[in-house]
Amino acid sequence: MAFWSRFFQRIPPADFVRAYQAFPEPDPKLPWREVPYTVIDVETTGLDPRRDALIAIGAVNVENGRVLLKQTWYSLIRPPADREPSVESIRIHHLTPEELQHAPPPAEVLAELLQRIAGRVLVVHVAQVDVRFINAALKPFGGRLRRPILDTARLALTLHLNARWSGEQPHDMPDPAIELRALATALGLPVYAQHNALNDAVTTAQLFIAQATILADQGRSNLAGLIRAGGV
Amino acid sequence: MEEIARFLRSYPPFDRLPDQVVSQIAGELQIEFVRSGQTILTRGGKPSEFLYIVCKGSVDLLRGEDQIVDTLGPGEAFGHPSLIRGQPPLVTVRAHTDTLLYLLPGAIFHRLRAEYPQFAAFFAASVIERLGYALQSRQAESNPALFQTRLRDLVARPPVSISADATVGDAARLMRAERISSLIVDQVPPGIITDRDLRNRVLAEGLPDTTPVRQVMSAPATTISADALAFEGLLLMLERGIHHLPLVDGDQIVGVITHTDILRRQSNSPLFLPRLLQRATSLADLRRYTDQVAEAVGTLMAAGARVSDIGRVVAVAHDALLQRLLRDAEAQLGPPPVPYAWLVLGSEGRYEQTLRTDQDNALVYDDSASSEDVSYFEKLAELVVGWLVECGFPRCPGNIMATNPEWRQPLSVWQHYFRRWIEIPNEEALLRIAIFFDYRQVYGQLPAELVLRTITQHAAEHRIFIARLARAALRQPAPLTFFRQVALERRGEQRDLLDLKLRGTAMVVDLARLFALEAHSNETNTIARLRAAKAAGVLSHEDADNLISAFELLSSLRLHHQQKQIALGLPPDNLINFHQLGPRERREVKESLQAIASVQRGVALMFQTDRLA
What CATH code is carried by the domain that includes residue B195? Predict the structure, then answer.
């Protein structure tokens, strides 16, 4: 009985989740530059939200179409005892179990995350992974991320297809790599040191403003246009 | 964002800010992406709220709809003039390519300007101020006493003076009592008497100690402003061959400095050179002397001297050598049968020689010379030119030397040459003018320089001549691409080369010669010519100052390059690889060339050079 009730019963949302949900959604008709965005990137111990843990998150705000380096945020997250990072993953993110043990617990970090992104549009590169991890972490608190969420990998694909249709690129041109560094480099943008959640968030943010500017040039100048081109 | 801080640190003026501060700045930036063709700032529009720094891509600065004033690339900044004045931008800024910009908020920019004078100076509104600042900072960097010390600060005590009617005995006793080696002679303008005068003009001449000071003093004394730099004092003493220099502040003499006061600050000084020359007894000694002069150039350069000042030191030293050689030649051949003059030409004539380069000289003798006398000068020229070769000055490959009979002529023939070049300005004449109009008389009793100057002074009355000269000065355009970037050359295997002489300093030399003639000026030094043209109103103040700064900068880069090659045992040339320069230097070169190009455009309009084609 206890098992079933836990399965069906919706967990009542925590206060910080309620506060997040209370914010009005941005108006999709707004020109893209007038919408506030937060670009995030996460580090995890692996790729499976059921087995692996969220261990770091980086965020940077975009306002008036500009990346604001003064409005950045970075935090480590203490993983559950049974989900400590594997040796292979440490090699990628350079975060050691010792460092992570002193990190704040998920509740604290998630509360701050939701407070920071409330009323803003979330931008993520390959949103699928990051969003699943955050939603999994939010589940015990009765929450999940609200849409719209924009994915720079999807935006890249749309831009690529647009270019193909408009004849700017030959039809046999392969689809673009979705790797962040490759996309940034292709647009002539600088890439900051990889595999640090904050640096990757800033690289993603630059990619995003470039993509949004190009889309606006192609006639999709409001938030709705961005959502059509790269919403998840 | 350490990468952004590192990016900023590799460009001026951020490279001069403390690391910590740049890291903080990086955290204050905003990042903006603009598409090719998009306008960032509008001329006459909303004042700039940021200092914009190009991260990737390039932007055009435009005056009017399509007149591109400048193109900026990574690390270069814009928006500051508007930001500083709080006024609408004077230029429109448009993305030339898709461009990523770092935006530094105005409040932070103003704070940095208040806290770091170098930062403020860098963003001073005009190109000229920036170029001036570049030179200044280079001098300050390389240090020392000579270029930072004001003469005023070397004064140990107030000056002691004596009446012109006092006796030399009184003077000697006063010097002993005060333990000094010179006295100011009280009169207007003041004179000076030194221990040297007592020895050379009194004792050695067998004069009694009752001789009045008036009779042996030097008056008026050579003086210099108390606020002049130690180096300027040094240069003046070197040029005049004096050892005491009274300092004036208004009409007051505030002290006297001696050459040892300055030498104490600088051990390896060119002031030792005259002594070396005096003691030389053989050609090998003289060769050593010219080696020392070459070394002094390195020392002065390392000490941060301006190239124009180094040029003057070298001219003084080489003139002294030439005078010595001519005296030696006269001693060997007997006194000259008629008066003559020895002229130096080209860079030497302009006081701009910094290396031992090919000889460029000529000889003028009095019209009364007989055919026998003429052969005297032939022998004299052979001797001196030969000795110069031994001292390290190769023969001129174009044979512009006093040994060439064409350039060893009586004064009337020289007058004819000069007049013909002006009246019939054909290709050959234009080539000659570029060398022979930059002349100085270094030795000889014949007032050749004076006579020939009256011809060059009136050259501007021949408008066709001036127009031809203007066209020749534009033949070598400033090496800039359509997008106002530096145009580079390729020679054989080497690419990205810039010829700092042909496509740098020589362009300014040609322009300065033209402007000086137009201003009826007799100056031969490029900077002096530009100043004269400015004073005469031939050249605007801004253009003159820009050209002077550009000339100093390009000459300085060239000299540094050559000194480096010499240190490596390579033959010095004028070719630098542009991309091997630091970002600061690249920018300075670009701005210098743009300054030159701008004056060239003005010349084309002013002299209507296209109509002559």
Answer: 3.10.580.10
pLDDT at B142 over 50: no
A192 contacts on B by Cβ (under 8 Å): 1, 3-4
**Domain tally, chain B:** 4
ipTM of the complex: 0.88
Count the neighbouring beta carbons within 10 Å of the beta carbon of residue B427: 9
Mark yes or no for CB contact A66/B103 under 8 Å.
Answer: yes
- Give the Å distances, CA to CA, from A3 to A7, A50, A139, B1: 6, 19, 17, 48
Residues B343 and B239 in one domain: no
- Assess whether B605 and B482 both reside in one domain: yes
Per-residue DSSP letters for B345-359? -HHHHTT---S----
Based on the fold, state whether residues B185 and B330 are members of the same structural domain: no
- The CATH code of the domain that includes B569 is 1.20.120
**Is B5 at the interface with chain A, CB within 8 A?**
no
* Residue in A72, A190, A209 nearest the CB of B55: A190
Q: State the residue range of the domain holding B603.
A: 467-612
pLDDT in tens, B501-528: 988 999 999 999 999 999 999 899 999 9
Q: Which long-range contacts (CB under 8 A, 24 or more apart) does A209-212 make?
A: A209/A62, A209/A65, A209/A66, A209/A67, A209/B31, A209/B32, A209/B33, A210/B33, A210/B98, A210/B100, A211/A152, A211/A155, A211/A156, A211/A159, A211/A187, A212/A32, A212/A33, A212/A65, A212/A155
Domain assignment present for residue B458? The answer is no
Is the alpha carbon torsion for B577, B581, B587, B592 positive or negative? negative
Tens of pLDDT, residue by residue over B403-445, are: 999 999 999 999 999 999 999 989 889 989 989 999 999 999 9
Contact check, Cβ <8 Å, B33/A210: yes
CB atoms B35 and A217 under 8 Å? yes
> Is A25-230 assigned to CATH 3.30.420.10?
yes
Residue range B215-234: average pLDDT? 85
Distance from C-alpha of B418 to C-alpha of B451, rounded to nearest angstrom: 11
Give the DSSP letter of residue A175.
Answer: P
Please, which residues 42-61 of chain B have a Cβ atom closer than 8 Å to chain A?
55-57
| Residue B215 CB neighbours (<10 A) | 12
Nearest beta carbon to residue A206 from set B26, B34, B100: B100
The answer to whether position B144 is within a domain reads no
Question: Are residues A188 and B100, on separate chains, in Cβ contact within 8 Å?
Answer: yes
Interface contacts (A, B; CB < 8 Å): 60
Do residues B409 and B288 share a domain?
Answer: yes
For residue B165, what are its two tokens? 């009617």
Two tokens, residue B264: 């104490």
Residue B113 in contact with residue B38, Cβ under 8 Å? no
Task: Read off the pLDDT band of B239 (50, 70, 90).
Answer: confident
Together in a domain, B320 and B379: yes
Average pLDDT over residues B181-210: 91
Claim to verify: residue B338 and residue B433 sit in the same structural domain: yes
CA distance A191 to chain B (A): 9
Q: Please say whether the dihedral angle defined by the alpha carbons of residues B512, B518, B524 and B525, taken in this order, is positive or negative.
A: negative
- CATH number for the domain harbouring residue B56: 2.60.120.10
A-chain residue closest to B55, CA distance: A190
Q: How far apart are CA A33 and CA B68, in angstroms?
A: 29
Question: Quick one: what percent of chain B has pLDDT higher than 90?
Answer: 45
pLDDT for B613 equals 42
Task: Give the pLDDT confidence score for residue B126 in this predicted structure.
Answer: 53
Structural domain contains residue B136 = no
Same domain for B190 and B115? no
Q: Is B36 on the interface with A (CB under 8 A)?
A: no
Residue pLDDT, tens place only, A132-152: 999 999 999 999 999 899 999
Question: What single-letter DSSP state applies at residue B395?
Answer: P
Tell me if B142 is assigned to some domain: no
Amino acid A15 reads: D
